[in-house]
């Protein structure tokens, strides 16, 4: 998957895969990595913290992606609870 050309990015905010219609960039992880959803439902993640880098499949569906986010949030909350100091 490649990022759309400069004029496409400004207008649409999309990325393209060889065998898929354009995927809409819908989120970032706060560290520069982007997430895009394709017409197939697959969620793509930028391989680097760059708009112009390659994208790789992060999840086969939006549901799977959201479940991954949920598990990540729960894991983070548990870690904070363990590291919390009494007092």
Features:
alpha+beta, 87 residues, 2 helices, 33% helix, 6-stranded antiparallel β-sheet
Furnish the topology, listing elements before pairings:
Blueprint lengths: L1 E2 L2 H7 L1 E3 L6 E6 L5 E4 L5 E4 L8 E5 L2 H22 L4
Antiparallel strand pairs: 1-2, 2-3, 3-4, 4-5, 5-6
Query: What is the overall shape?
Result: elongated
Q: What's the rounded overall pLDDT mean?
A: 78
Number of helices: 2
Q: Segments where pLDDT lies below 50 for 5+ residues?
A: 7-12
Largest sheet: 6 strands, antiparallel
How many β-strands, per DSSP?
A: 6
Proportion of residues in extended strands:
25-35%
Structural class: alpha+beta
Sheet with most strands: strand arrangement: 1-2-3-4-5-6
Intertermini distance: 50 Å
Multimerization status:
single chain
Cα Rg? 16 Å
Q: Would you kindly provide a written description of the structure presented here, covering whatever features stand out?
A:
This protein is an alpha+beta fold. The chain has one domain. It is built from 2 helices and 6 strands, in the order βαβββββα. It has a 6-stranded antiparallel sheet with strand order 1-2-3-4-5-6. Strand 4 and strand 5 form a beta hairpin. The longest helix is centred in the last third of the chain and has 22 residues. It starts with a strand and ends with a helix. The relative contact order is 0.14.
Provide a brief overview of the structure.
The protein has helices at 6-12, 62-83; strands at residues 2-3, 14-16, 23-28, 34-37, 43-46, 55-59.
